[in-house]
Amino acid sequence: MTASARGWRVSYHRGAEYEIRKCAELFNPSNESLLSVGRRRRSRRFVVVDENFHRLHSGAIRRYFADNEVDVRIVSVPAGEPNKSVEAYVSLLDALDQFPIDRRDEPIIAIGGGVITDLTGFVAGTYRRGVPHIRVPTTLMGYVDASVGIKTGVNLRGHKNRVGAFTPPARVLLDRSFLATLPRRHILNGVCEVFKLAVISDLALFEKLEAHGPDCIAAHFQDEPGLWILDRSIQRMLDELQLNLFEDELARKMDFGHTFSYGLETCADSQCLHGEAVLIDVLVSSTLAQSRGLLKRSELDRIVRLAFALDIIPPLHSLDPPALWESLLERTRHRNGWQRVPLPHGIGKCTFVNDVQQDEVRTSCVELMALSRV
Amino acid sequence: MTASARGWRVSYHRGAEYEIRKCAELFNPSNESLLSVGRRRRSRRFVVVDENFHRLHSGAIRRYFADNEVDVRIVSVPAGEPNKSVEAYVSLLDALDQFPIDRRDEPIIAIGGGVITDLTGFVAGTYRRGVPHIRVPTTLMGYVDASVGIKTGVNLRGHKNRVGAFTPPARVLLDRSFLATLPRRHILNGVCEVFKLAVISDLALFEKLEAHGPDCIAAHFQDEPGLWILDRSIQRMLDELQLNLFEDELARKMDFGHTFSYGLETCADSQCLHGEAVLIDVLVSSTLAQSRGLLKRSELDRIVRLAFALDIIPPLHSLDPPALWESLLERTRHRNGWQRVPLPHGIGKCTFVNDVQQDEVRTSCVELMALSRV
User: Mean pLDDT over residues B299-322, rounded?
Assistant: First the structure.
């Protein structure tokens, strides 16, 4: 801090780290992972669990804490975008405040998909100006995407993640076995993010998806290639996030898939999941990239072919070019006045453009609808 | 980031700085201070103003932005603890979301006392996971305390600052002339924090208050000693905050005055202001410190005498020892299981204790009530 006649300048530096740990049998009472952060003896844990997951595992979770003599309050929260709301945030804060925890030693535990970990992470990041939290993703989307970074948040009147914080978790615990019982649609939802990652940043991952993707999906990623794909996806995601965790740089490769159909899943009556909205964007962006000469025709065909093979192509007949354009305008505000649209420049490579025209978006939609009927 | 067979470790470092700038004639259209952060041309500003201040200055504020050709949305918010609520937070988020600003270049401006800057700071800290904000304190409490640090937040069901964030402002603009029209009770409210600062950390400031305090109060700090006291208070506050901005260390001198009557002002039907609650705590803590031999009898008398001279002694007949004890228990959770009570060890010096007993609190209250009747 420096002082002068004019006033003062306050400066600060801050660093920290967190661990993403793979583990198995998370609810086996002898597995210490869930209690590996904070105080164990005479302590309490506030646990937020996805309603569906809770239905299957409530007994095991309760037994885990009972056997470890930890006083637990379990709150079951319905998943789904409409529940990732400011109202759910306030209601969770109220529940937490009625189960007082120490500020540093009794981390909140979030068990669920992206909706649950984003919502709970935001509660943890703001209760008493921040208490630690642990994330346990139970969906593929959570496993490869939502849980590994530091973004938390909720939707505001259908505007996706409009309110939130950068809240590093104390720890992320990955138990791949949870994916085994996931409904197929939710497996595919996560595959869309893996697909996005491959197209924009990793040709080897793309090729692995071509070779093993359908089998991995059938095996719910419990097989060897599935493990490789999961590890690789997290590794690539972290490669991108690491140097830009707080989004000081607004041109972000990982925003690929999040420009033209941003928040499609939060519209009232939307039947869409987040990954499905991302996939629409990936296809529109790739078509647009091809028309600009950034992708060869054969590369675009290869991308569409893989999407078909993975069975992740959503219904495209209702693509709405004006809505896609509106989405770009909103993202431009989020990217501080510049479009900064990530486009694939060859499969696995990225470039950014700032001059997308409304006409181009419309043409890309028409072309994509033709392509997807092939 | 490091990877192993077990998982990944993600680490990060982050630094920044902000300026606290003294200025005059803030709303003179040729004064660039209010537009010194962010884009000036073809830009927008979302401005949150204390209702009382707005009544006096709405014309000047509007003219300022009009003359500078900045598109402005002014939201007037009532001050007072009951308005520092989660509901007010959500309502302000909604208003902001209807006046879209760019994420980095169009800072939110908060003009008001601690309630307004804490509330608006929290909105800014969480809208789009953080947009920049500027603070313009208009009360003495805001000037020497609320606006200079990085804490933002709102009350939850009467629990003071239970939800919030550490949100460094982009800039703090101090215009001392705003204090000239403040009601006397709000001047005294801020004086309580200055008094606290003096007792726990600054004998010279204490002596200056003894010599000039009553005159400064009468002059609403528009005089020379008033300027000295304001500058000194901010300097001392920053000395303390600088190395512990994010409260990594939970034993904090600045928590003096915030242990036994924590959040008294947020109780339903409370007639208390924040500074008044702090003052009660300062007096209880000092009495307790004297009974432990940390303060001499003469020092305690000197503290009480100055409080009388400054006319800041609140009604003490209703001191409620069980409520003070409950407050300590709650603060102990906030301080992660240890009391960490700051007590004066001689005037201007601080020590921390962890073994305050309920009996001691009761005795101190009785003794204080006797003292204050002298």
Answer: 92
Mutate to test the interface with A, among B126, B127, B134, B176 (most CBs of A within 10 A): B126
Q: Which of B105, B129, B330 lies at the smallest CB-CB distance from A336?
A: B105
Q: What is the per-residue DSSP string for B207-246?
A: HHHHHHHHHHHHTTT-SHHHHHHHHHHHHHHHHHHHTTTT
What residues of B are in contact with residue A3 (Cβ under 8 Å)?
Answer: 235, 238
| pTM, entire model | 0.96
Mark whether B196 is an active-site residue. no
CB burial of A311-340 (b: ≥16 within 10 Å; e: otherwise) equals ebbbebeebebeebbebbebbbebbbbebb
**B268: pLDDT strictly greater than 80:** no
Please list the residues that pair with B49 across neighbouring strands: B76, B111
Amino acid making up residue A42:
R
* Segment (H or E) for A369: helix A358-373
Q: Are strands A7-22 and A2-3 parallel, antiparallel or unpaired?
A: antiparallel
pLDDT for B44 equals: 97
A225-262 confidence digits (pLDDT tens): 999 999 999 999 999 999 899 999 999 999 999 999 98
pLDDT tens sequence across A257-276: 999 998 888 876 778 899 99
For A116-166, the DSSP string reads HHHHHHHHHHHBTT---EEEEE-SHHIIIIITTSSEEEEEETTEEEEEEEE
Averaged over B17-45, what is the pLDDT? 96
For residue B374, pLDDT beyond 60:
no
Q: Which residues pair with B173 in a beta bridge?
A: B21
| Residues belonging to chain B | 374
Among A107, A89, A103, A94, smallest CA distance to A47 is for: A107
Long-range contacts formed by B178-184: CB under 8 A, 24+ apart: B178/B53, B178/B137, B178/B138, B178/B139, B179/B139, B179/B140, B179/B143, B179/B220, B179/B221, B179/B222, B180/B220, B180/B222, B181/B56, B181/B220, B182/B138, B182/B139, B182/B140, B182/B220, B184/B217
Give A109: exposed, middle or buried? Use CB within 10 Å, 0-12, 13-18, 19+.
buried
For the stretch A151-170, pLDDT in tens is 999 999 989 999 999 999 99
Contact state of B165 with A125 under an 8 Å Cβ cutoff: yes
Q: Which residues of B touch A148 (CB under 8 A)?
A: 8
State the smallest CA–CA distance between residue A339 and chain B in angstroms.
12
The single-letter code of the amino acid at B106 is: E
Q: Are B246 and A1 a contacting pair at CB < 8 A?
A: no
The DSSP output letter for A323 is H
Residue B370 has pLDDT above 80, yes or no: yes
Burial class (CB in 10 A: 0-12, 13-18, 19+), B26: buried
Residues 168-207, chain B: which have Cβ within 8 Å of A? 168, 174
User: By the 8 A CB rule, do B228 and B208 touch?
Assistant: yes
What are the chain A neighbours of B156 within 8 Å (beta carbons)? Answer: 93-94, 97
User: The complex's ipTM?
Assistant: 0.96
The CA distance from B6 to the nearest CA of chain A, in Å, is 6
Among B151, B160, B208, B253, the active-site one is B151
Catalytic residue, chosen from A22, A84, A151, A196, is A151
* Residues B188-245: tens digit of each pLDDT: 999 999 999 999 999 999 999 999 999 999 999 999 999 999 999 999 999 999 989 9
State the pLDDT at residue A374. Answer: 56
Q: Which residues are CB-contacts of A218 (< 8 A; sequence separation ≥ 6)?
A: none
